[in-house]
Amino acid sequence: MKASLPWIGAIAAVIGLPFVFSGGAALSVMSLMGFAIIFALSYNVLLGQTGLLSFGHAVYYGLGGFVTAHALNLIAASKFPLPLPLVPLIGGIAGLAFAVPLGWVTTKRAGTAFSMISLGIGELVAACSLILRGFFGGEGGISTSRTSILQLFGFSFGPQLQVYYLIGSWCLICIALMYAFTRTPLGRICNAVRDNPERAEFIGYSTHQVRFLAFCIAGFFAGIAGGLAAIHYEIVTSGVVGAGPSGFVLLMTFIGGVGHFIGPILGAILMTAMQASLSDFTGAWLFYMGMLFIVMVMFAPTGFAGLLLMHGQLASAAAWRRLLPAYLLAIPALLALLAGVVLVVETAHHLLVKSAEGMTMQWFGITYEADAARTWVALLALLLVAIFAARKVFPIVGNAWNEARLVH
Amino acid sequence: MLELVIFSSLNGILYGMLLFLLASGLTLIFSMMGVLNFAHASFYMLGAYFGYQISRYVGYWPGLVIAPVLVGLVGALVERYGLRAVHKHGHVAELLFTFGLAFIIEEGVQMIWGKLAVDYRVPELLNFPAFTLFETTYPAFKLFMLLMSVATFLALLSLLTKTRVGLIIQAALSHPHTVGTLGHNVPLVFMMVFGVGCGLAALAGVIAGPALVTQPAMAASLGPILFVVVVVGGLGSLAGAFVASLAIGLIQTFAVAVNVSIADVIGLVGLKVDSNAFAGDLWNATVAQVAPVIPYLLLVLVLILRPHGLMGNRDS
User: Fold this and answer.
1) List of chain A residues whose C-beta atoms are within 8 Å of the C-beta of residue B92
2) B100: which of A77, A285, B19, B142 is 20 to 30 A away, CA to CA?
């Protein structure tokens, strides 16, 4: 019963969210989260489960999307009786079909060489997308329409709400399937190949084959995500196979946390929400993403999921009593650090990029000039004080944490 | 035809030598620390932008020295306070760190210098045609680029093989622990090598910036080719990187000059391929159009035939 609680919660969330956030923009963002979750989880089959750091995973996502778009156009033209809810499967099969030959080459090596090869293959496909205009549609991409094929039970999939439920259902199915995969013997052997390839070879498994199978499964689910993206946007452009989405999925997965199944889900939700909210708000949002990523790599390699679950292990209220004072001390320091970094970046961004709009800026109700010397003195002073405070506070938090862990 | 061969060879060697300036640092850092520096091409871009900024105040020539030194210092700081901290989390964390670094540098460059290309000019002193062959002129600056990269290559070679410092570096490549036991400060050597590698990349940036275009996408477009060079040459092999750099430089330069498609070749025997036929784009794409794909095809081919690269001997 306890094990099924997260699943019931997830189903309830997918069904219930449109009642809470019913606006068109919110529905669209939640749809984006749906296929971002599938994409990030498929990436984690490689990174978290098998220990393969890929820089070209968007190839299978993008190709899945292109094949889905072409398939939708073909189905509409030939009146083939295939309803829309099954179409993402075409994307998955396409992702798998491309992952078989490309993955065979990529998984020949593990470790750093694997990363470089996956990058090379990603660039290969991205470069091909500019040559093969028939398939990739050149600059304009491939447009399609999700409403012009066979409709079942009166669902046209025109309204965003219906598309949301389609994506939500596929998201739940894929989460369940990928979770089930982590429990299979193959999923376990993937972990063995990640942790100790030599011993995996000794007990009779070909590490190349295991990596290859994991790669194919990741390609399949990435293809489904790509197919859902094609259905959502109704257009696929050659940018989706490039280095940008490949890097973004790595950021999502890692920031969420690669060591836990829930990590990529958290990361996908968080990053999509950040992308949707911050990109209107600041021109430097990708810079913040990069900073967040580096901070996570350096100080919290288990990601947000790791940080959260770490606290779930704390046994008693006594442990929390040890921890809370330290946290109360750390929060102002962290907030000051955050404010300092954000203000410096925003002011610099304003000064360098948006100087044509005038130098007057407003933050926290304070109006100031971006090019005034005293502004910069104040900003740098804030930043330095915050760094100093953080350096003082972090060891205290670390000690409190170690004590709290020992309390039973 | 002869004209094409001569100019393409010159340009190819030039491009190859520039690639090697970057690849040598990358492969040295890799074989020593096991880190494939994803941000290496970003340091090349930083070099070009620093050089541009310096050239606006004091002209091109001081930038040729100052920019690589500055970038080298930045690289050393990154190694000291970034890479060394993530080292305990393993190689994947290190690769991720440099990936994030590349991301930040690209965004930062866009924030500071804008998204468009900057006007980084060839210095007046070298802004004349060096020689004229078959009525085509060859700019003196390109000749200078060639000389600079060959000179740097020779200097690096003699540093590594002839000096005591080079001896320690070579030893630290294969036996870091033994070198440490002998009393050398291996982390300091690592930091120096990382800094010098980044400085070399920046030097390539200052040399190439005015001739190629100095823009925020220059790192992202060169980076993957760089990785092709080190993987094809064999991870960690300097000689392999040299051969692969020259090969890829020559192949790409010659490919751009060849304006023939498969359909043309088939057309010679009298068959005609319609552009609407199956995969018509593929048959009608000229070699020049396919040129950007060739390095990656080479990568796939080498991996199938020689998984450890041309001269590599280590599994990573």
Assistant:
1) 51, 53
2) B19
Measured from the Cβ of residue A312, the count of other Cβ atoms closer than 10 Å reads 6
Locate the chain A residue with the closest alpha carbon to B113.
A352
Closest CA to A213 of A63, A133, A107: A107
Residues B231, A254: C-beta atoms closer than 8 Å: no
pLDDT at B148 over 80: yes
Say what the alpha-carbon torsion angle A242, A234, A270, A344 is, to the nearest 10 degrees.
60
Q: Do B231 and A113 touch (CB under 8 A)?
A: yes
- Closest to B51 measured CA to CA, from B164, B255, B199: B199
Q: Where are the domains of chain A?
A: 5-283, 314-406
Cross-chain CB nearest to A116 (options B36, B101, B281): B36
- A5-283 topology per CATH: ABC transporter involved in vitamin B12 uptake, BtuC (1.10.3470)
Q: Six-digit token pair at B73?
A: 């210092």
CB A264 within 8 A of CB A306: no
Question: Looking at this predicted complex, what is its ipTM?
Answer: 0.84
Give the closest-approach CA distance of A119 to chain B in angstroms: 7
Rounded-to-integer distance, Cα B79 and Cα A367, Å? 39
Answer yes or no: are the C-beta atoms of B268 and B311 closer than 8 Å.
Answer: no
Could you tell me which residue, A105 or B307, shows the higher pLDDT?
A: A105
Residue of B26, B104, B226 to mutate when probing chain A, most A C-beta within 10 A: B104
Q: Each residue of B267-296: pLDDT tens digit?
A: 666 666 555 555 556 666 677 777 788 888
Structure tokens at B238: 């300097």
Q: List chain B domain ranges.
A: 2-215
